[in-house]
Design a protein that fits this description.
8 helices, Muramoyl-pentapeptide Carboxypeptidase, domain 2, 8 strands, globular, disordered N terminus, two-stranded antiparallel ribbon, 2 domains
């Protein structure tokens, strides 16, 4: 076998192969027969890659949908309807319900412990901060010859029930007519302890009348009430549809009173 590199001369008597394929060694002929197999593997490979590509696209679309979903959920959670928390009735920090009844917002009754008198006999009360401001305001008005007389301050639910239902029946008013001049129980600003009805001690005939705005007391309040953090609740043509009440004022001199009247509904 050491002479394998020198080919032997073929014998002239050796018969020639009838087919050219016989000149190719068996091993090479077998290689010729299996040569097409790699082409088949390539086709399979291309098919597999295409399938993987489709699967990747599908997976990408699914992930895109998954990524978008939390954004939608976040927006829903941040919406006012989703974040609004119900307020417990009677809570001193409660804010009015955004919904109204016959044009009036719902208010919880102020705790008795937070009330203070604004008249000598203690029959009319307001929240302590509001009561202090009201006393200072009436004292300042008196120095200018103006008599501010408190007619009504804090009212309980029972007080308001009488003023709305019983007076409505006595006057033969329907619910809507009565609501224009008196809120249903649970929906009066007087429940908060921040509201007060004011009259003119020098012109009592015009008390609780739209013509109260013609009195000296009203003119003084219009010019000076803001100094003591009081404002008119029901102006002419107010958005709540409540009748004009020039005698009805409310205290907005601390954060709690501001939240009570403005947080849930926006400024008039």
């Amino acid at each position: 076998m050491d002479n394998a590199g020198t080919p032997e001369k073929p014998s002239e008597t050796t018969p020639k192969s009838p087919l050219p394929m016989d000149d190719i060694p068996v091993a090479q002929r077998e290689g010729q027969e299996v040569a097409p197999k790699p082409q088949t593997n390539i086709v399979l490979l291309i098919g597999s890659l295409a399938a993987l590509g489709i699967a990747a696209l599908a997976a990408g679309s699914f992930m895109a949908l998954r990524i978008q979903q939390p954004q939608t959920d976040t927006l829903a959670m941040e919406s006012p309807a989703a974040t609004a928390q119900p307020t417990q009735a009677g809570s001193p920090t409660a804010t009015p319900n955004a919904e109204t009844l016959l044009g009036h917002f719902a208010y919880p009754a102020a705790p008795q412990a937070e009330l203070a008198p604004i008249v000598a006999d203690g029959s009319i009360k307001m929240r302590k901060a509001a009561a202090q401001a009201y006393r200072e305001m009436t004292a300042a008005a008196q120095q200018e010859g103006i008599s501010l007389v408190p007619i009504s301050g804090f009212r309980s639910l029972e007080d308001q029930k009488y003023l709305y239902f019983d007076v409505k029946a006595d006057r033969n008013q329907n619910a809507t007519e009565r609501a224009k001049v008196s809120a249903p129980p649970g929906y009066s600003e007087h429940h908060t302890g921040y509201a007060v009805d004011i009259g003119d001690g020098n012109t009592p005939a015009l008390n609780l009348s739209p013509d109260f705005d013609k009195t000296a007391a009203y003119r003084w309040l219009k010019d000076n009430a803001n100094r003591y953090s009081f404002e008119l609740s029901f102006t002419k043509n107010n958005r709540q549809g409540v009748s004009y009440e020039p005698w009805h004022w409310r205290y907005v001199g601390d954060i709690q009173s501001l939240k009570t009247f403005y947080k849930a509904r926006g400024q008039k």
